[in-house]
Amino acid sequence: MVEIERHDYDVVVIGAGGAGLRAAIETRAQGLKTAVICKSLFGKAHTVMAEGGIAASMGNVNSRDNWQVHFRDTMRGGKFLNNWRMAELHAKEAPQRVWELETYGALFDRTKDGRISQRNFGGHEYPRLAHVGDRTGLELIRTLQQKIVSLQQEDRAEFGDYEARLKVFQECTITELLKDSGAGGPQGTADRIAGAFGYWRESGRFVRFDAPAVVLATGGIGKSFKVTSNSWEYTGDGHALALRAGASLINMEFVQFHPTGMVWPPSVKGILVTESVRGDGGVLRNSENRRFMFDYIPEVFKDNYADSEEEADRWYDDPDNNRRPPELLPRDEVARAINSEVKEGRGSEHGGVFLDVSSRLPAEEIVRRLPSMHHQFKELADVDITAEPMEVGPTCHYVMGGVEVDPDTAASRVPGLFAAGEVAGGMHGSNRLGGNSLSDLLVFGRRAGAGAVEYVARTGFRPVVHESDVDAAMRRVAAPFEPGDGASENPYALHAELQQVMNDLVGIIRSGEEMRTALGQLHELKRRAKNLAVEGNRQFNPGWHLALDLRNMLLVSECVAAAALLRTESRGGHTRDDHPAMDPAWRGKLLACSVYDGSVDVAEQPQSPMREDLLSLFAAEELRKYYTEDELP
Ligand code: FAD
């Protein structure tokens, strides 16, 4: 038996983005010995890339805002498929979480009278996004890390060891969740979480963490798509780890394509152009210079969006007496509109449309409000956004689907396994509103941490890992160095093929036939992936890392395609060419993915009916657009 590095903790948090850090702060603050593990450098997590802001109904810029309005906007954005309890908790608790960040040291942009400033964003009725220029995620991560350092200093004072109760393991990838053997606890414990197995990216050495509770906070899945705003870390690891451990994923058919990614030059295709550009007055035009979004206001949103340029422009100064510009429709609507313009031949030279802020704001104001965008376009595309429009098009950005969790505790179906942040499903329904992710991370990161603390206290047992499971985990990760007799496969080539399949067949507009073709191709890729082969040894070997990540990407991509095939309607981030309308009969149904013997199974399950007091926040005629007659009170 190979001896491997072993650590014992009360809680292991996998992921050091906003959700993971907030969860770890909670578990440590409540006295539990906590490990935070991340596969990139500490501070690099995806959260750091968030630009526009964090949504919370603090009412600083428009005092009419409150949690009920935020709740309504979130449900509308998700086309009423959201887990309403999560949307309720999120809307109620987001302001507290933002104020709490200030107590950790965050410095948000201010209003003239010194309050936290809030900006407009798509789908939000009032200015609601607290922000730090267009670098909000950086401030969020910086502040959470600062809080972690302060907790570590407390431990140093108390125990003489900074890491006595909170330690970060960076550049460490988890490949397997471990379950209890049943040897140490009461009967029936065998299905509980017992820890996690992984490897150090630099040395390739194996490591294991034994713990009764694991919080997954691993982010999204975007690297399965060719054009994406996501970085190399987003390979769906947490989604796949949860599935393989016996948890279920919901809403996997809903993938958000952000309307505005860069389209040129090719090397930067997909990089995000923040929605703040539109929130701060930027407009979308086609090659005929037409502000085309007025042609794409869907029936369900007609009452809330301006139908003329004059009214839309007046809204920026007088939002109480005018309707919002259609550029600020939810992301799914804007992405589909851009897609249609390009398809119908009214796109830009490089296959996008034009996003113009240069004719809308003075140059110095653009640089002040959007410093990263100014820098990004100047450096990467040689475009000065204060003088000319940007070329933009849809890019895979966010996955609404994720681990099915209890809304209050973030507990998954597997005892001891919790999930928060982008890896968790339910909160955003079929489409996430911009800014609602950063607030989701804090609200449910804290709740997942609290859920894990409560679970550890309640169960009170230490798990015992099956040694044979650890051996199997070691064999699995070592497999690409010992390929079988079949023709060996190159991980980079296979990844490129996967991305092409997902982009071409499971992208922004889908059809049943495309999904069937995609599933066929994904099964074939999965078969070939058994022969993935890498050269060299385990010391920093990116080809090997990718080979391991591919196992997760393939599994999660299959869930997306399989669920997309079954949902025969169009809603939010799932648009079916062959079923173009939203079908109220589907609103009450969730598709839950599980894995049995390595195969994905997708089953329909009913959505729990919304509580009466929350339902009464909506006008009857609005509900009628989404609900079946039987469901209405
Ligand atoms: P992340 O921040 O991605 O953290 C995931 C962590 O998990 C990382 O530390 C990673 O290393 C680790 N990890 C993953 N797999 C493993 C593994 N196998 N083993 C160990 N560690 C692992 N949302 C907003 O609300 N407002 C915005 O303005 C906004 N702007 C955005 C801009 C861009 C360019 C992008 C890409 C997204 C933006 N989003 C925004 C979305 C938001 O940033 C993400 O949804 C959110 O940050 C996800 O946070 P998280 O904590 O769930 O995961």
UniProtKB/TrEMBL annotation:
Residues 10-438 form the FAD-dependent oxidoreductase 2 FAD-binding domain. Keywords: Flavoprotein, Oxidoreductase. Residues 495-592 form the Fumarate reductase/succinate dehydrogenase flavoprotein-like C-terminal domain. The keyword Calcium does not apply. InterPro entries: FAD-dep_OxRdtase_2_FAD-bd, FAD/NAD-bd_sf, Fum_R/Succ_DH_flav-like_C_sf, Fum_Rdtase/Succ_DH_flav-like_C, SdhA/FrdA/AprA, Succ_DH/fumarate_Rdtase_cat_sf. Pfam families: FAD_binding_2, Succ_DH_flav_C. This is Fumarate reductase/succinate dehydrogenase flavoprotein subunit. The lineage of its organism: Bacteria, Bacillati, Actinomycetota, Actinomycetes, Pseudonocardiales.
